[in-house]
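Q: What changes when flavin mononucleotide is included in the input?
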Amino acid sequence: MNFTQIKKLISLKRRSGAGIQTVDEFKELAKKRIPNAIWDFIEGGAGTEQAIQANRKSLESVLFQPKYLVDVSQRNTSAQIFGRPIKTPIILSPAGIATLAHPLGEIAVARAAAKADAIFCLSTGSGLSIEQVAEVSDGRLWFQLYLWKSQEVIDSLINRAKKAGYEALIITVDVPVVGKRERDLRNGMSLPVTIRPGQYFHYLRKPRWIAGVLKNPAITFGNLTDVTSGDDASSIGEYVNKELNDPSKTWDDVARIRSAWEGPLLIKGIMNPSDARKAEQVGANGIIVSNHGGRQFSSVPGVATIFPEIKKVVSKNTELFLDGGIRRGEDIVKAHALGATAACSGRSWFWALAADGEQGVNRILEILEKEVEDTLALIGEPKLTDVGPQNLFST
Ligand SMILES: Cc1cc2nc3c(=O)[nH]c(=O)nc-3n(C[C@H](O)[C@H](O)[C@H](O)COP(=O)(O)O)c2cc1C
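A: The predicted holo structure follows.
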C-alpha cells in the first residue's frame, strides 16, 4: 500500500453528526460523571422499581402501521399546547434539585428548553428558585406545586410563580407520602449533600463533580430556603415526609388553588379514570397521566397501558399529557398516536444535564426533535398534530 492509497482511506475531518446519538448514551455518560448516590437518586424508583420497567414496556408494546408513498418531504414536528405551538414537541417534566446533577441546574435546563422552543416545568423542590430560572429564560415555563403542609408556603409559591410570569401551574397529586426509594435510603441522600463514611471513595472518584459543589452555594431546595433546615442525616424522602408533606390533602384543596390561579392548571400523577374526571370537575385544563416515573409505587401499570382508559373518559377540551419512559422521538410520536397533546420526560434531560450541562440538554432536545421528524416520515404522517390512532397497528 502506498501513501496515495492510504490518503484515500483516511480523513482528518470528523464525521458530521458523530457523538452522542441517543438518550441512553447520555445516561451512560452521566453514570461516569456523577457520584453513585446522585446517579441512584436520578435513576432509581420506588420499591421493586418494576413501574420504571412497566413504563418502558407499555411504550414498546405500542406499534405503528406505516403508510408509504405519501409526500413527507415537509415535516412539522410542532405540538399545539394550550393554543400555542412548540417546535420541539417535549415537555421537560419537573424534577427536583437539578443542581445535584450540575451546578447550573435548572438554569441550564430552562435555557436549553427556551432555545429549542420546548416547555420546561420547574419543580417545587428545584435547586434554584422560581425567580432565578425566570430571569434567564424567555421560553415557556410552567411551575409544579406540591400540596405541602403550610397553606402560607403554597400561597407564597403560587404568587411568586404568577409574578415571575410562569404560564401554567401543575399540581402533583401522587405523593401522599414519598415513595420508598430504597437506593436513596441506603445511600443516606440528604440535603445539604453530605458524604458519609463508606462513600468517600465513590465521591472522590468524581473530582469534577466535587469541584462544582465546592465552588457553588450548598445544594438545597432553592424555593424553600427559609422553610428547610440543615442536615439531620435523614434521606430527602424522609425529610419531606416529616417536615413538608401533608397526606390529608384532598380535591377540595385543588379546587381552592384553581380559584387562585387564572392561567392553565394541570394535575400531574393521574392513573385512574375517575381521578381524571375529578380533575376536570375542579376545572383543570390539563391532565398529566403519570406514575412519577416509577418513583412512587412499583405496583402500577405503565403509563401507555393506562393512557387509553383515561383518554376515553375526558372531554375534548382537556389536554392530556403522557409522562414516563419517554426515551426516543418514536415514543413521543406514540404518545400523540394514543391521543396525547404532548409527551413529557424527566430522566432524559436530567441525565443529559449530569453528563454535559446545558450543552447536553441542547443536544438531547435536538436528538429527540430529529427522531420525531424521522418517525413522521417513516409512518407517512407529515404533521405531528395529525398523528392519531389511525397510525397505530392493532391486532
Ligand atoms: C430526579 C427526579 C426528580 C423528580 N422530582 C419531581 C418533582 O419534584 N415533582 C414532580 O412532580 N415530579 C418529579 N419527578 C417525576 C418527573 O416529573 C416525571 O414524572 C418522571 O421523571 C417521568 O418519568 P421518566 O423519568 O421516565 O421520564 C422527578 C423525577 C426524577 C427523575
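Observations recorded in class: The longest strand covers residues 140-146.
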